């Protein structure tokens, strides 16, 4: 069993900020269920334009003085005499690690209601203006025009219980019946994760176990900073 | 009953009481990717109760989630043809590309036939009674879940479920254990508002080391920042949410398909479908591949020759295990065939075959091994997954050259072809003819036509005759940079072929020559290494990779290893030479300026590791 000073659940922007703040001083592991890093801002299509920064975020995670396990699920979290034992499952099957401190930057274990949308990048190849349409449960956010084409972010409001594939299937079917004004628009890409928002504030769940969800912040800079500030506060202890 | 699971990369087993299965299905498909999606659809269309599970949040595998939406070989046929037609129509009307449409169309088909999907779900273990699979343990939506099944289809593309069930597996090439390089797909909006993707080789990774795999993924995505891959005219939309591993574990099946089977065109009495492609192995380090593959790919310059490969149920059946089928690029074959038998159309047919087999087994209440072949065959013939037209034999099959390959046996025809720019078929025919053609080849070694002399020497060496060696050495001394033109890509330089064959012949007289190439500091200054500057698909060169230098040096190093293995008296001096040549990164740096972790760097690093391992051995 490998021992860490800190395990961060979620390769989120908050997880990145925290790992950067403590690197070289705390032996850190970041565990992420998917192979996508900074997914909360890059793969959710939360803000216009930010999704183009995937390479830069991957580089920042790659450069961390921390271990990173992508495609790894957290199966169980148990306490022991002075910390936490995590049972993980990834490409090598089960794996157990131990840590003194644990920070969960995801919403996977919160069990609380969140506001969530499934987003898509839509495009009008000839550059026509985004029409103003009233479309129940769907919102359109225009992106800055940088090329001959025009793009926008489409946001489909999702019920709490919908899984990603269910939401994506509904989005595709809704899009096939889209308003006439959008007939010349096409979906360029559907997000690979939900765009979620929680009103939860950071919380100490137990001794050495923090809940610091990245998706409590509107901007990437804010969620990153939340992690940095937590790490700095520890360094100042 | 036994519960078998994996921990820290090793399979473990515990005795358990009868598990409390929350559900029981006729067919459980683990991995709803390229093969698995068709398995779910085909099995449910035959009336079976089916559950498909996948670790990803979407179905379709590399063709959808991996965004490799175009096909490379494999022949159209079976259920995927209708799916592709519906996908193309929906794609045109509503999307910039087809992938979202394909997911939607396939999900509709799955729902229509009453099958279920559980995504974001992983198989954590397999329940076995004796040698029979009884069910699986899953982790889904943050909870454990036990499901019983009559037939488990392992469509994970990695044999992980088969391994947990007790199947032996193998992985990678014999020389160094490496699998094919992986790809990471980047999807862009072009300046004109269309979708494009880059699908370049991203390096080599041990996907069974979770830390190395994670670094490989981040490295591959971060590499988009390198100047060579930058394109400011385009906007990144996303990186495919999982990387493209081309080769992983392969099951030890009831019947393994070998490269010898493929090259010999071995027929199969109970064919379920035919695979069809070239040996699309991607890596440039041909020198580390097997003799069988290099004879075809390097010596005969036939890298784009396509072969039909019949696949039977036994190739999809893990040896000695009941209630289990494999469907995907992990069915029973060797490393060389794994580069050919992996294309999406073929894997879709593989999934369809497995789905039909499993459904028929459920209908009759028997193991998949007991389903009469004729019943499966008739269903697959009706869907078009199995047709006589899919058995094309050996062909060049691209826009550069589309013709059936007939191996030659007339010395006059062979003579004419060996003297041409396209001698590949004649060269390989000589290997097949063996000693019977040798007298002709030996006579042509002294011909005044240098093209014929060189062609004859290559062909003679492939028959194993050392009489070819002096002419081969002459080609290397001249650093003959002529390349043959049999293929649309990956054509081989003649001196590279000669170096390979000198190693194959274990020609001790070439040790000084090959050693000088690797250690003489003036070697890299020769003009031939600096003449080819433009990327060329015909040669498979690229901007940041010195193809000719790499090929000559890599083959020289491996040829010396082969000679040392056959001539103990040279072993010490060869080890000394190789140790000196690869003590530092000089050969890597002369091959590419790209950093460690890139495909280009790793390609020469593979040669260095192999060579230094030999020196240490």
Brief sketch in words of this structure:
The complex is a heterodimer of chains A (237) and B (617). Chain A has 237 residues and is an alpha/beta fold.
Q: Can you walk through the features of this model?
A:
- The complex is a heterodimer of chains A (237) and B (617).
- Chain A has 237 residues and is α/β, with parallel strands linked by helices.
- Chain A has helices at 13-22, 54-62, 164-176, 220-235, and strands at 2-9, 28-31, 67-69, 73-80, 83-90, 93-104, 115-124, 138-142, 150-158, 186-190, 195-197, 203-206, 209-211.
- Chain A has two domains: 2-107 and 199-235, FAD/NAD(P)-binding domain; 115-195, no CATH class.
- Chain A contains four helices and 13 strands.
- In chain A, strands 1, 2, 3, 4, 5, 6, 12 and 13 form an eight-stranded mixed sheet that branches.
- Chain A is elongated and about 65 Å long.
- The two termini of chain A are 28 Å apart.
- Chain B has three domains: 20-167 and 248-397, 3-Layer(bba) Sandwich (FAD/NAD(P)-binding domain), CATH 3.50.50.60; 182-239, no CATH class; 465-616.
- Chain B is built from 22 helices and 20 strands.
- In chain B, the strands form five sheets. In chain B, strands 1, 2, 3, 4, 5, 6, 7, 8 and 18 form a nine-stranded mixed sheet that branches. A four-stranded antiparallel sheet of chain B has the order 16-17-19-20. A three-stranded antiparallel sheet of chain B has the order 12-11-14, with no helix packed on it.
- The two termini of chain B are 45 Å apart.
- The mean pLDDT of chain B is 95.
- At the A-B interface, helix 2, strand 3, strand 6, strand 7 and helix 3 of A face strand 1, helix 2, helix 3, helix 5 and strand 14 of B.
